[in-house]
Amino acid sequence: MSDPTRPPGPKIIAVANQKGGVGKTTTTINLAAALAEQGFRVLLVDLDPQGNASTGLGIEPEDRKHSTYDLLLDDARLKDVILPTAVAGLWISPANSDLSSADMELVSLEKRSFLLHDALRQPDIDAFAFDYVLIDCPPSLSLLTVNAMVAAHSVLVPLQAEFFALEGLSQLMLTIREVRQSANRLLRIEGVILTMYDVRNNLSQQVEADARATLGEIVFRTMIPRNVRVSEAPSYALPVLQYDTASRGSEAYRALANELIARHLVADKKG
To answer: Which residue range is the domain that position 80 belongs to?
Structure first.
């Protein structure tokens, strides 16, 4: 039974797509920054062994003394792993190359799918008073991604506006269904966000039409445009909202954050 004196926990969202190059990490970083800009307290959990979210938020490799690997496999305390970023209101659990071997190490563990779930529900998370936790998943349907889905309340799916965009989505949806049946029955689809959208390109418009016809209302109205500022920002270790606050990319991620918040307000009223 839950303790009624404890504050409600954060909304935990896994950002996942097994296809690489769809804007998954870019979306995680910039959505987190957009939520923080609105005054929410946000934790980004870097679960990708490449550690691009950590690098994109300016966390140097030598500063990653503890990482998400330690949360999963060494029973580390959250307060010993989480680092502040240059974005006010945004913290990160960084990743390093140790995560590369995590899948193999997880296989032999009895509660292998619940390690991140338990790590994000340590009592000391209350001290941070996070409103949102965004998990940047690896580009694969691995045990790390399953851990993210078991830990999360919902899954946000970035979908690149390109040919074959919907190919492979069925496998991701099947994995979500399997996680619901076996470990997290309340897991839901947060939504699908179209990325790298080019309004001048007929293909982008066709992909949008197909996605909305196939997936319906789970596709966000907001779309992330193909934008040079979004592409440049990671090389300066900044979210695009700080790199060029007035860019089309920044405005799109603000709009996505607003749409996400509005969806949650509606869901909370129904709940």
So the answer is: 11-270
Q: By C-alpha distance, which of 18, 10, 96 is closest to 53? A: 96
- Write down the H helix ranges in 38-140: 52-56, 68-73, 78-81, 102-106, 115-119
What's the total number of domains in the chain?
1
The answer to whether the beta carbons of residues 144 and 3 sit under 8 Å apart is no
d(CA 264, CA 156) in angstroms, rounded, equals 13
Kindly tell me the sign of the dihedral angle through the C-alpha atoms of 123, 11, 105, 174.
Answer: positive
Please list the residues that pair with 219 across neighbouring strands: 192
Residue 4 lies in a domain: no
Convert the pLDDT of each residue in 168-203 to its tens digit: 788 899 999 999 999 999 999 999 999 999 988 899
Q: Where are the beta strands (DSSP E) in the chain?
A: 11-15, 42-46, 83-84, 90-93, 132-136, 154-160, 188-197, 219-225
Query: pTM of the entire structure?
Result: 0.94
The string of pLDDT tens digits covering residues 16-43 is 999 989 999 999 999 999 999 999 999 9
Q: Looking at this protein, which amino acid is placed at residue 138?
A: P
Nearest alpha-carbon partner for 241 in 16, 252, 159, 160: 252
Domain at 80, CATH number = 3.40.50.300
In a domain, 3, yes or no: no
